[in-house]
């Protein structure tokens, strides 16, 4: 029998978050290194290949930058490289986070991990920290290398100007990471988690875009929080609407807190269950009804009736109605919901909720956003 | 469902206690108010057919599942989310999963994680079990994989070892080796082993206690020897024909009475000595005590509770 | 160290087999009085038997006087002659019944003697 003092020492010696962190880092070491290598190729190496003279010539030839407000700088050379790096970064977020949390989706891996002498909080935190460290390392090393090249070229100011955009991309990447964690912790299969992750972002982004464009308010969003459900938008919205870096923090914290909460409450037996069979999924389906409705409505409108103002076009509303039902249906089927068991009234109500969402968004956009000033 | 408990053996506190433990998956009730106490230094067999709730019980004991109602306690504390309890509980699944490819790497993982890891024991077990430390675990047969999982689990020095099917897929030599290792750990370290199985035969000679699970309910828990000794099968022949009523009048608690010509086959409650004593008062010509398998004991125990064993052990 | 033989197929409970095996070894002189029996641990590790089973057997053997325990040292075979009255009674009954059956079947007494002799011969041969 150990005495109280020994017991305390034992408890203190017990492996915890730090242990999980080390294991998690080791788990994604090769993936992280692979993506580091890719980002190196995409920017520093390409710059080296282009060489100082060519770079200078290319950027002096077109001194105007590709942006709107004079804050974000992406010259004709860095801009395409930036886009490629963004793509690589997005891929790295999905692959690394998937590697850390895929154990949640199979009962045998859940058995193995959850029976270990660790608390769920430690498992989550360790893996999260490893992910953030890996991502930060990739982004930092890439930036450092690129910066070094510009320093050698005596064009460090170019790099400093570009850094603002790069940091914005980094912010979007971390947001996307946190956002992804929510769907891993909620979903029953990896397929559903990724599908929902991508589907939700796409649905939200295009729905909002459509509503804005329909309302003629593409130029002036009140806040980047509009894109809350589409963190990936952060990689490209900077070229159209700039967002202060601090605004990245709010969604980041929001998604992290949410995923922490969901992770702690996730029952082990969820492994392998399709999302359509989980209760929370029903709450998200109106978003897909919204997306279906707005998209189909717009499409039908353009096809048959694009002379009337859209909000007064019956064609649009027909398409909206049909589209919302379609969107609901598709999301039910794709998520593995047992439609035979689900009362049709639920599906109908969900579609209607999507329509309601559209109504609310349209009203909000009209009320809270001023139309851009007519240049004439 | 009627439940019994085997609490406090030799004054030892129970290592694992289930108290009105229930687990539901949606509308499916996998375990229904199971109450059971398992003491230290014991080899406990949890018997039941597929879907009876054995794996669910094991996972609750391992802290993988959270109880829907009731409690699953290890040394008096809930197992779920209890890292220090899990230090002493090791779970060997029916199909073990290994996060690393070789035993060597798995051992390194366990060593860094389990405070009670015994490297010397690990090395010794490597010599006992014919498993190469550097061989790929995923290329081994299911039986060998399970052995590897057991090896790792034992070397981690658990107080409670949970096994989903211990001997399935092992040849007789491996089986005997495994029994030796497990028995030694129970003797040496006071380890408790909880084996869930459909196969009574294998557990018959190894467990000291058994519990029978059926459709989520624990039908009974009993010390194995008590179960076996509580029923006797006698074959006797008498000079004068003897009726069942006559035997019953002697005070014999007859469960089954079969006449085959001049031979009589009786299944009676009581110990061998008692029954012998009673029957010999009638001066039988022939008297044999026939061996009863545990399965037969179960059949009769359960017929009292109006269950068809074919359902339970299918 | 002498270990008992176990027959897993016989259907006889293990702890009874252990008891009988030790009893038999003592009776045959394969074990000497005051000889040490294997420890519970040794029995478990060597034969793969549940240590609780071994303990149960040892406890009963101690109660019946077949063995005695020395705290800290182990279990030892008793020196005293075992009370064999119960066994003799059983054997007497078995013979009585065999004789009755033979009588009823019409077997000659000589045949019965022959059967007994060949049985004893068999036993003698198998224990050598």
Defining traits:
heterotrimer, A: 376 residues, mainly alpha, 2 domains, 12 helices, B: 314 residues, alpha/beta, Rossmann fold, Alpha-Beta Plaits, 4-stranded antiparallel sheet, elongated, disordered N terminus
Structural description of this entry:
- The complex is a heterotrimer of chains A (376), B (314) and C (128).
- Helix content of chain A is 70%, strand content 0%.
- Chain A has two domains: 12-192 and 222-271, no CATH class; 274-376, no CATH class.
- Chain A is built from twelve helices and no strands.
- By secondary structure, chain A is an all-alpha fold.
- Chain A has helices at residues 4-13, 17-27, 29-61, 78-101, 107-114, 120-152, 156-186, 190-214, 246-265, 281-304, 314-334, 344-368.
- By secondary structure, chain B is an alpha/beta fold.
- Chain B has two domains: 9-223, 3-Layer(aba) Sandwich (Rossmann fold), CATH 3.40.50.300; 230-312, Alpha-Beta Plaits (2-Layer Sandwich).
- Helix content of chain B is 34%, strand content 29%.
- Chain B is built from twelve helices and 14 strands.
- Chain B has a six-stranded mixed sheet with strand order 6-7-8-3-9-10, sandwiched between helices. Chain B has a four-stranded antiparallel sheet with strand order 2-1-4-5, with helices on one face. In chain B, strands 12-13-11-14 form a four-stranded antiparallel sheet.
- The relative contact order of chain B is 0.14.
- By secondary structure, chain C is mostly helical.
- Chain C folds into two domains: 14-77, Arc Repressor Mutant, subunit A; 85-126, no CATH class.
- Chain C is built from five helices and two strands.
- Chain C has helices at residues 14-28, 40-47, 51-63, 85-105, 109-126, and strands at 67-70, 74-77.
- Chain C has a two-stranded antiparallel sheet with strand order 1-2.
- In chain C, helix 1 crosses helix 3 and helix 2 packs across helix 3.
- The two termini of chain C are 19 Å apart.
- The model of chain C has no long low-confidence stretch (mean pLDDT 83).
- Chain B binds chain C through residues 41-43, 176-180, 182-184, 186-188, 205-208, 225, 228-229, 239, 280, 284-287, 291-293, and chain C through 8, 10-15, 40-41, 44-53, 56, 93, 97, 100-101, 104.
